Amino acid sequence: MIITKIKRTLRAGFVSFWRNGYVSLASVLIMTVTLIVVASIVFAGAMLDSTLNNIKDRVDINVYFSRTAPEEDVIRLEKSLSQLPQVAEIDYKTSDEALADFRDRHSNDELTLQALDEIGANPLGASFNIKAKDPSQYESIVKFLEDTKDSARTGESIIERINYARNKEAIDALSRIIEATNRLGTVTIIFFAFVSILITFNTVRLAIYVFREEISVMRLVGASEMYIRGPFVTVGIMYGLFSGILTMLILYPVTYWVGPITERVGTGLNLFSYYLSNFPSIFGILVGTGVVLGAISSYLAVRKYLRV
């Protein structure tokens, strides 16, 4: 009995969707606009994350050691740093590697190379290039370096210079940008989600308005609320399903055209590549959002006409 009712409900919903083609088309198109807004939020979030990650990758601190720093002390400090939960990566460059890099950078500067040869000894010390997992963690890393900078053998400082002071302003600015962006992103998502629900609800309600008299008659003859609502909820689900598919079809050429542009402007993200690599999840988000919005909006919109 229950299965028979479900079959009748689904059949009635499918028939209603195709029989009222113009109303269904209008509802699908308006819901498609809503889902495009949802997709824009998803893409904007991805581009923002990629941009912030690019900026994070460019922020670091450099630690320069004195020429007399024992190599075993430098290695010991590297091992201690690598165990810190704040540290993401350490690039250790020995004094010989620093000298080789210096010669490469000034390969066309004969005077500099000649002056270097006249010195005889290597004037450059070893160095660390340190990247933190989060920009706000650099200060604690610097504090750790200052607390452990003394040599185990001589008790003297093996660190000649830490360039954190020069980068602190940029690091603090980046931390503020990330915090403000996260807050703004949350507010924007909530706002557009509310607008999307409002648009979808009113669209479905207008579509159901055509059947207000039919609903009243069904209610008067004793039809249950679930029996009346069922076909309209089915239609709402179909609105969401077709809108999600249409939105994905629209996004393909749009992201193909916009993708190279988003990559060139400094986000580090090709939107078309992101669309292809995350196709299943984007499809699930859009179709799922459309189906949920359509079903809930239809369920609530019918309520007004059930009061007989």
In angstroms, what is the radius of gyration?
32 Å
Q: Any idea how many domains? A: 2
Distance between the termini: 27 Å
How many strands in all? Answer: 4
Strand content: 5-15%
Average per-residue pLDDT, rounded, comes to: 77
In terms of structural class, how would the helical and strand content be classed?
alpha+beta
Series of H and E elements = HHEHEHHEHEHHHHH
Kindly report the spatial arrangement of strands forming the biggest sheet.
Answer: 2-3-1-4
Instruction: Indicate the overall shape.
Output: elongated
Q: Main beta sheet, described?
A: 4 strands, antiparallel
Q: Helicity range of the residues? A: over 70%
Give me the number of helical elements.
Answer: 11
Low-confidence stretches: none
Provide the descriptors you would attach to this structure in a database record.
single chain, 308 residues, 2 domains, 74% helix
Chart the SSEs and their pairings.
Elements: H1 2-19, H2 21-58, E1 61-65, H3 71-82, E2 87-93, H4 95-105, H5 110-119, E3 127-132, H6 138-147, E4 159-162, H7 164-209, H8 212-220, H9 225-267, H10 271-277, H11 279-303
Helix pairs in contact: 1-9, 2-7, 2-9, 2-11, 7-11, 9-10, 9-11
Architecture overview:
The protein has 2 domains: 187 residues, no CATH class; 91 residues, Alpha-Beta Plaits (2-Layer Sandwich), CATH 3.30.70. Strands 2-3-1-4 form a 4-stranded antiparallel β-sheet. It is 74% helix and 7% strand. It is of the alpha+beta class and 308 residues long. Helix 2 packs antiparallel against helix 7.
